[in-house]
Design a protein that fits this description.
Layout (H helix, E strand, L loop, with lengths): L1 H18 L2 H4 L21 E6 L24 E7 L17 E2 L2 E9 L5 E8 L5 H4 L5 H9 L5 E4 L14 E8 L3 E10 L10 E10 L4
Antiparallel strand pairs: 1-2, 2-4, 3-4, 4-5, 5-9, 6-7, 7-8, 8-9
Helix pairs in contact: 1-4
Length: about 220
Amino acid sequence: MKHRRWVWALSLLLLLVACGDANAGEAIDLRDLNLGMSVASIPSEEYINLACAEKEGAKLAAWSEFRTCPADEMGLRGISFRFNDEVNPLAALSDKYQGTKLGGHPVLLTGLVDSSGALQGIRIDTDPNARLFWRKKAYLLALSVRARYGEAGWMCREAESYDGENPVGGLIIKEHCEKRSERRHLILDRELYRRASQPLSDFVNATHLVIEQTTDR
């Protein structure tokens, strides 16, 4: 029964991403994680490799150990985590569902927890150490994010390019976007360029997303 619920939740999330249903999509933030929920309610078997995001080598046995991690200027503690393939019945069927991926892209995940133990934010970064095949596509995850939350309402600007930053495949992308709803603040960045010091086989290619809970009404 647990696996059936998991498959249903994942199927719903994939459908929302594909269809870009922003209103229905706000029912969940990431799998079965909702901002505002207590870390005590997070299923321990579904998320593994817990560690302090800003304290190298500080592994956690459970979400309840969040106070071990240093707080940022907003009082939030970052906990990095990964999906557990062992409870994902789809992982055995296709590598599309293996590992920690969103929209098919390998990602790094961080939960942002406040002093009371409530999940106040989720940070999603494309994995810079993924295979070259995936790193070449990393900036495209931002397009899936915008479709998932709806194209309307985004405020975007292009960041300045500096001397020595060169196109990759004819493109330089340094885009910062934000969107607010009645319950979420989305911060979305995507980058694609090559630094002067980088060889042709290397480049900057990334999507960064932060989902924050707000009290806007």
